[in-house]
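Standup notes
- DV: blocked on the single-chain target, sequence here:
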Amino acid sequence: MNATSPVGALLLCRAEPDAVRPVAHLLREGMLLAPAGEGWSVLVPEGTPWQGEQPAEGEAAEPAEPVDRVVGGWATALAVGSTWPVLALWWDGDRAGYTLAAGFRRPVGYVWLADGTPAGEDEAMRTFAERLGLDPVLDVQALEALTRPDPETDARARLRGLLAVLTRTGLELPPGPEPGEPSGRPASGADAWPGAERIAWTGWRDAVMVELDAVENSRMGPWMRGPRARALAGAQLAAGLPIALWGAGRRSGGWVFAGALLMAHGALGLAYDRIRDEAPDGP
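- DV (later): unblocked, structure below
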């Protein structure tokens, strides 16, 4: 990858910001969250974790992790911890593409080379359309057109074509995020996005309290107490550990984080009463 080439990513969530906020906090990454049309939200990383951490003096630099692997892991973790699909768009100097994660189903993705040459499987587009509830005829035809050779269409244009299909579902990106640019910053600060807010990691307790507030104000609130809720939390803990171990064995940071997030949800469910009793404004 050319070090001077634009590298960036966007996370598109099929949910309103109020539903995305508590799960996004658990990614432990600085991000901008904003509405992106009817029933959609966009998360834009404020940092560049795919570039790797700066080494201390005298230490060798670790190789950077590919941007598609980083944001694919984020999408997987967000989808496992929620009930809505997450679409990660990414690009670097050599390629561009997407990863769609939905629950525990295997993520689906597609890749284009920088010049727009398709480098994925056609079946991925049909699965993509099915999981997002797109029109099986018109939308699938538009998506399949993105998998055909076109010497006048580069990878950036392919991503714009993908977004154009999603506008039929209500997606409308705020001004600023643009596939192919170094980062998806607003045109002139966060104020350029109506309803934009910064998601910052402030520690596990604050993140848990944010999630509790969101859950209590949702339809799930009444189900967070009692034997049934404890049984569900225990099942999440039991499922999270093998997922995290499986991801570690395959060196997949996304699945490791997904397993850890599932265990965190389980632990949250088991500790719900106690955390609320300790909260200053708790019942």
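- Follow-up: The chain has a mean pLDDT of 77.
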